[in-house]
Write a structure and sequence with these properties.
nine-stranded mixed beta sheet; about 260 residues; disordered C terminus; globular; three-stranded antiparallel beta sheet; 3 helices; alpha+beta
């Protein structure tokens, strides 16, 4: 299958993707949020970081209704392209070492939503342009995955975009935010190779934090936490199969009103 056919088929299939709905939407009730924060997993520049990232079907116990709780919103771009070997690859960044929080860690391009954003797609592509100079016109937004909640209940929407012409992308790094750009095979996040995990506990529920070690050239990267969780889920959707390892996600849920606007840009 040639490059155009591979990406064309992927675009068509992902455009049909619909995030699974919670089975207990009608059972929401008020609860106590004294143990959690509200959007504190944003750094001083509004970029996303967190050691904990829980998918929509595995988030937090019931908490107050919308009039009492308004989660901060952010979006990240899962930008996929076909590598020279015919594999699907995802663009990642290494956070600047000058940042005061989580400096030097790996993340997906993205950040907090701004009032003028038309939806999660515009947030993700706008932030990618600001961070790495990726022109939104080069990216075909094809799917919106289930939102993730960070430890402090920051709502992070993963936006899947296809970069059909990788050669047209001329990276321009915003040095105040990004130290390096690299790409990794998406399928890596379904494999047990170069992966390790730590068991942690949050709100009396145990879960695993996954770490993926990735070497490219003379550089070594560790992809973990929220970023790893999002990429595991994205790989599961794209390749239509489960990971070769146990994810061990807590049995939590996200109420309906935490979910947000997933409009195409």
């Amino acid at each position: 299958m040639d490059s155009d056919s591979l990406l064309g088929d992927l675009i068509q299939r992902l455009r049909l993707y619909v995030p699974p709905a919670s089975q207990d939407d009608e059972q929401e009730e008020e609860g106590d949020v004294s143990k959690v924060g509200n959007g504190e997993d944003l750094d001083e520049r509004g970029k996303v970081f967190s050691a904990v990232g829980l998918v929509e079907s595995a988030a937090v116990p019931p908490f107050p209704r919308p009039e009492r709780f308004k989660p901060k919103r952010a979006a990240v771009l899962i930008c996929l392209f076909e590598g020279d070997g015919g594999d699907l690859r995802v663009i990642l960044t290494k956070r600047s070492s000058t940042l005061s929080t989580h400096s030097g860690e790996v993340s997906l391009p993205g950040g907090k939503a701004e009032e003028g954003d038309a939806g999660d797609g515009e947030t993700a592509t706008r932030e990618a342009k600001e961070e790495i100079g990726l022109d939104p016109a080069l990216v075909t937004v094809v799917a919106f995955l289930e939102p993730f909640l960070s430890r402090h209940l920051l709502r992070v929407a993963p936006v899947v975009g296809i970069l059909s012409n990788k050669k047209a992308f001329k990276p321009v790094i915003n040095a105040s935010e990004v130290e390096a750009i690299f790409d990794a095979p998406l399928e890596m996040f379904l494999k047990d190779e170069n992966r390790r995990s730590e068991e942690r506990e949050w709100l009396e529920e145990k879960f695993l934090v996954h770490y993926f070690d990735y070497d490219t050239g003379d550089q070594k990267f560790v992809i973990w936490g929220l970023t790893a969780s999002i990429l595991i889920h994205a790989a599961t959707v794209v390749y239509q199969r489960s990971p070769a390892f146990t994810e061990q996600k807590p049995k939590f849920r996200v109420p309906r009103y935490v979910r947000g606007n997933c409009s195409m840009p």
